[in-house]
Design a protein that fits this description.
Layout (H helix, E strand, L loop, with lengths): L8 H14 L7 H31 L10 H10 L2 E7 L19 E9 L3 E2 L2 E2 L5 E3 L2 H9 L11 E4 L3 E4 L5 E8 L3 E3 L5 E2 L12 E3 L6 H11 L6 H20 L1
Parallel strand pairs: 5-6
Antiparallel strand pairs: 1-8, 2-8, 3-4, 6-7, 9-10, 9-11
């Protein structure tokens, strides 16, 4: 079997199944497990943004280790695999930008990172311009009527709603960076898929997109969602042993 690029769903399932059987807390079927897997991954993913805020606050207070031990750096590294860059053109016959549902490259946006104009590199200098992001329509109205802060092509502004409205309206292309929602990875190839993580006995399972070091968190989160109480230390120890066992089998 080829190496998986995300947390191995079979490790998570077998760990949870064995622990529940050991503690006589009932049996969780692959179907039940798969229903909770997507929600568990999404909960952990959303929690990363809260952890990032906490880590940045500690860093400002001088309590966050530096370099490779930095909690901020480690969270940003984990989030980097969910970062997407997409160039958008105006929707035909309109003054706004939107993601086309027919475009397979337009992954569902979870958190917006930045927006720039779609420039190019000229004499080793980028012609892109950062676009200020605004979520408040009243604030935008004040910006638009102001003689001092009215948007220009050098200093554009975007209103984020169901669509993206960029001012001045003479800007026809933008580049959006955002974090997409986590999906799954096909176990046997590590390839991306738009399907959710799914465990299938005797078939092709779809691994989590979260990195492998989130295995124990996934076990604990799915247990919590399914109403099963597990001790943290036991989950961590067992999932670590299970993961090592699978790796040994893959090398043979």
């Amino acid at each position: 079997m080829a190496k998986s690029y995300g947390a191995d769903i079979s490790v998570v399932y077998n760990t949870l199944k064995d622990l529940t059987n050991k503690d006589q807390q009932g049996f969780i079927s692959p179907t039940e497990f798969s229903r909770f897997a997507t929600i568990a991954q999404l909960n952990i993913f959303n929690g990363l943004f809260d952890e990032l805020k906490d880590a940045q606050r500690l860093s400002r207070g001088g309590y966050n280790p530096s370099r490779d031990k930095s909690r901020t750096k480690r969270i940003l590294e984990d989030l980097a695999s969910f970062s997407v860059k997409k160039q958008l053109s105006k929707t035909t016959g309109s003054d706004f930008f939107s993601f086309s549902s027919a475009d397979p490259a337009a992954k569902p946006m979870a958190r917006l990172i930045s927006i720039t104009t779609a420039g190019s590199i000229l004499l080793d200098q980028s012609t892109k311009r950062p676009i200020e992001i605004c979520y408040d329509e009243e604030k935008l109205e004040r910006i638009l009527v102001s003689n001092l802060s009215a948007p220009t092509e050098e200093f554009p502004v975007a209103l984020i709603s169901d669509d993206i409205h960029v001012f001045p309206t003479s800007i026809n292309k933008i580049e959006v960076r955002y974090y997409k929602y986590p999906e799954g990875r096909v176990s046997t190839t590590g390839a991306r898929t738009s399907n959710p993580p799914t465990y299938t006995e005797g078939g092709t399972s779809i691994d989590f997109e979260l990195p492998e070091h989130y295995t124990s968190k996934l076990v604990y989160e799915i247990a919590k969602l399914s109403g099963i109480n597990l001790r943290d230390a036991e989950v961590v120890n067992y999932s670590s042993l299970e993961s090592q066992s699978i790796k040994q089998a893959e090398k043979q």
